[in-house]
Amino acid sequence: MLWGGLHQVRRYWQQMNYMLKYVYAGGGTNLANALERSREVLTRSRSNSKHVICVTDGRTVNSSMCIKEAVRLRRGGGTTISTIAIGENSDDELLMRLSKIGGGLFIKISSIHDLGKALIMDKLHSM
Q1: Which domains, from first to last, does the chain contain?
Q2: Going along 22-118, which residue ranges are E strands?
Q3: What's the pTM?
Q4: What span, in angstroms and rounded, lies between the C-alpha atoms of 42 and 37?
Q5: Which of 51, 71, 78, 98 is most buried, judged by most C-beta within 10 A?
Q6: Distance of CA 13 to CAs 8, 31, 116, Å?
Q7: Buried b or exposed e, range 64-84, using 16+ CB within 10 angstroms
Q8: E strands within the chain?
Q9: Side-chain half-sphere of 34: how many Cα atoms within 13 Å?
Q10: Residues 55, 92: Cα–Cα separation, whole Å
Q11: Closest-CA residue to 115 (of 60, 57, 49)
Q12: pLDDT tens, position by position, 31-63
């Protein structure tokens, strides 16, 4: 949401790649809030195809709220959800569940350096 709305990835590809140099796995993420915000933004979208990709270690403050938000995203607008787990300590169970609810992929990578491959896999799955 850094760019104030929905845009095609290729528009900001260079900036996103630059920022990924400073992303690392660890700590906790308010994943439920991110899913809620995604739902708010996608509700205003007129696109027929809505897809959320969560790139995270899955360590979150409230996993039950994550599940509820994933259900809302899926039921409310047909949004699909894929998750990409980074690192050895990722909460794979939660992330697999979110992907299953969202009808998307669960992909596990060991390093942020594999993110590009994971995003290509996700794109090929959604075609």
Answers
A1: 28-126 (3.40.50.410)
A2: 51-56, 80-86, 103-109
A3: 0.77
A4: 9
A5: 98
A6: 9, 23, 11
A7: ebbbebbeebbeeeebbbbbb
A8: 51-56, 80-86, 103-109
A9: 19
A10: 12
A11: 57
A12: 998 899 899 888 888 888 899 999 988 788 789
Lookup result for tokens 């794109």: 123
Element (H, E) at 64: helix 63-77
State the pLDDT at residue 62: 86
CB atoms within 10 A of CB 116: 12
Q: Give the amino acid at 64.
A: S
pLDDT (0 to 100) of residue 1 = 41
Q: pLDDT tens, 83-116? A: 999 888 889 999 999 999 999 999 999 988 898 8
